[in-house]
């Protein structure tokens, strides 16, 4: 069988795949290390994300969370398996997906509004619509008063909110986030988690959000995917059935956190044991 045919066969509509916004099918990624060895970043990873779902990915350091997110963003490709959006292979970055990283990566020489405007221009929004759309999204993340400020005049939390406004202003179907709040202090992080929940409830975007923080995952997610020690694979796919809008102090959430935390610690301990064993 020719490879092209085999690939098409793999994409024959499967009811689960047809309704999925994003699908990761038997994915593996192996990197070459600088010393010529191979590093298996993730293996046999399969999951689906449905339209409008908020999915968090949790797992020990080095288990391939960023690798998976980069593949969904189209910044990296699997060595094996398929990464699909609306049933089609992801061939590269596209305006249907916005990505947020730990560092907000705003252009330092542009104002906050200028950064949002630039992104809108890049995706082809006409000038006549850009100012209104920029101000609408800055208001949603409570940055209206800072529209003309330069990024260096903002706090870390405000910069990350500006990046969120810039990402959502472009109206992507999917938001991909790799530990976007990890560098923030605990209070700012909680405020941004609540804001993200509010914006998500408002817009119904499909979100894949990578984090190390179990409380953050339980608070935000419809489903938490827990990855194993490296090479990472999904060891638990847990629905979080706590009512929204959620409150960080909800005891139901605390019980969910305890359950996920216990499982995560098992995987982290495997990494530690391996490191001690090889020391
Ligand atoms: N470009 C690359 N070249 C070589 N190895 C890489 C590359 N990117 C990732 N890796 C390796 O792949 C593995 C998974 O990395 P990845 O960044 O996806 O993990 P992670 O789960 O996001 O970790 P963390 O929680 O620390 O951010 C690691 O062993 C890492 O060293
Ligand atoms: Mg990472």
Textual characterization of the structure:
The protein is an alpha/beta fold and 279 residues long. The protein folds into two domains: 14-96 and 173-278, 3-Layer(aba) Sandwich (Rossmann fold), CATH 3.40.50; 107-171, no CATH class. Helix content is 41%, strand content 22%. It has helices spanning 3-10, 15-19, 65-73, 112-122, 127-140, 156-169, 186-203, 214-220, 251-278, and strands at 22-32, 38-49, 54-58, 80-85, 88-89, 97-100, 174-178, 206-210, 223-227, 234-239. Helix 4 (112-122) runs parallel beside helix 6, helix 5 (127-140) crosses helix 6 and helix 8 (214-220) packs across helix 9. The longest helix has 28 residues, at 251-278. The N and C termini lie far apart (46 Å). Residues 1-10 have low confidence and may be disordered.
Give the secondary structure arrangement, pairings included.
Layout: H1 3-10, H2 15-19, E1 22-32, E2 38-49, E3 54-58, H3 65-73, E4 80-85, E5 88-89, E6 97-100, H4 112-122, H5 127-140, H6 156-169, E7 174-178, H7 186-203, E8 206-210, H8 214-220, E9 223-227, E10 234-239, H9 251-278
Parallel strand pairs: 3-8, 3-9, 6-7, 7-8
Antiparallel strand pairs: 1-2, 1-4, 4-5, 9-10
Helix pairs in contact: 4-5, 4-6, 5-6, 8-9
The structure holds adenosine-5'-triphosphate and magnesium ion.
Magnesium ion binds near residues 65 and 178.
């Amino acid at each position: 069988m020719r490879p092209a045919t085999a690939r098409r066969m793999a994409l024959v509509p499967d009811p689960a795949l047809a309704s999925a916004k994003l699908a990761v099918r038997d994915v593996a990624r192996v990197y070459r290390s600088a010393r010529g060895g191979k590093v298996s970043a993730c293996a046999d990873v399969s999951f689906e994300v449905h339209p409008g779902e908020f999915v968090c990915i949790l797992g020990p350091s080095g288990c391939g969370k960023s690798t998976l997110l980069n593949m969904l963003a189209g910044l990296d490709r699997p060595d094996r398996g398929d990464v699909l959006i609306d049933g089609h292979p992801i061939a590269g970055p596209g305006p249907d997906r916005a990505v947020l990283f730990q560092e907000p990566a705003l252009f330092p020489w542009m104002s906050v509004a200028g950064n949002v405007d630039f992104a809108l221009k890049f995706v082809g929004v006409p000038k006549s619509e850009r100012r209104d759309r920029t101000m609408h999204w800055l208001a949603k993340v409570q940055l209206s008063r800072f529209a003309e400020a330069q990024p260096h005049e903002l706090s870390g939390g405000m910069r990350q909110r500006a990046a969120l406004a810039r990402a959502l202003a472009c109206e992507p179907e999917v938001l991909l986030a790799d530990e976007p709040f990890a560098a923030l202090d605990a209070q700012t992080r909680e405020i941004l988690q609540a804001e993200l929940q509010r914006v998500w409830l408002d817009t119904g975007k499909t979100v894949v959000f990578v984090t190390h923080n179990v409380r953050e995952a339980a608070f935000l997610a419809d489903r938490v995917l827990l990855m194993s020690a490296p090479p990472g694979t999904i060891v638990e796919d847990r629905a979080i059935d706590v009512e929204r809008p959620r409150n960080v102090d909800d005891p139901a959430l605390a019980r969910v956190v305890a359950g996920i935390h216990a499982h995560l610690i098992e995987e982290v301990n495997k990494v530690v044991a391996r490191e001690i064993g090889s020391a």
